[in-house]
């Protein structure tokens, strides 16, 4: 250790016997302090650069977000389209069923009106509660019997006087 710093000059005045018995410690405080300060400064700059890079990497990219949002929207759009289609078909079905029911009601009303007209044409019937009136059916005339074959004439009856 041939180099001595200015601070160590005061220590060189110590006894010569002490120097020979123990190892010499040189205090290079200014150099060590400058070196430590430079190392700390470079380390801090390195940490700041890494932090800036991490922040840049963590920042969402617009194109990436657009792709992710569009992929996530596909199932939602398909589901909404399917529900809309189902509801349209269901409304058409209800329209057809409702039209059939209305048609049946109109037919029932027409049949009821025809039945009321037939009753009114048949004649007025007086009804009293608890009294049952029996009326005779219109006289039915028996239909003349016709032979199975109209070409044939009835067979003549033989005379027994002969």
Number of helices: 3
Instruction: Report how far the terminal alpha carbons are from each other.
Output: 188 Å
Strand content: under 5%
Order of helices and strands: HHH
How many β-strand runs? Answer: 0
Average pLDDT level: 77
Largest sheet: none
Main structural class = mainly alpha
Can you walk through the features of this model?
The chain is about 60% helix and about 0% strand. The protein has 3 helices and no strands. The protein is mainly α. The mean pLDDT is about 75.
Set out the fold topology.
Blueprint: H1 16-21, H2 29-58, H3 62-122
Features:
single chain, mainly alpha, 3 helices, 0% strand, 162 residues, rod-shaped
Summarize the structure.
This protein is mainly α and 162 residues long. It has helices spanning 16-21, 29-58, 62-122.
């Amino acid at each position: 250790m041939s180099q001595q710093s200015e601070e160590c000059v005061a220590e060189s005045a110590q006894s010569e016997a002490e120097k020979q018995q123990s190892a010499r410690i040189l205090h290079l405080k200014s150099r060590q302090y400058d070196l430590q300060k430079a190392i700390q400064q470079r380390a801090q700059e390195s940490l700041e650069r890494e932090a800036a890079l991490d922040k840049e990497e963590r920042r969402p990219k617009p194109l990436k977000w657009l792709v992710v949002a569009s992929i996530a929207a596909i199932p939602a759009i398909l589901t909404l389209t399917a529900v809309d289609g189902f509801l349209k078909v269901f409304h058409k079905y209800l329209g057809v069923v409702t039209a059939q029911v209305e048609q049946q009601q109109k037919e029932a009303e027409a049949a009821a009106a025809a039945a009321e007209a037939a009753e009114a044409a048949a004649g007025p019937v007086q009804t009293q509660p608890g009294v049952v009136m029996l009326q005779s059916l219109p006289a039915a005339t028996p239909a003349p019997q016709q032979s199975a074959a109209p070409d044939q004439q009835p067979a003549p009856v033989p005379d027994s006087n002969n």
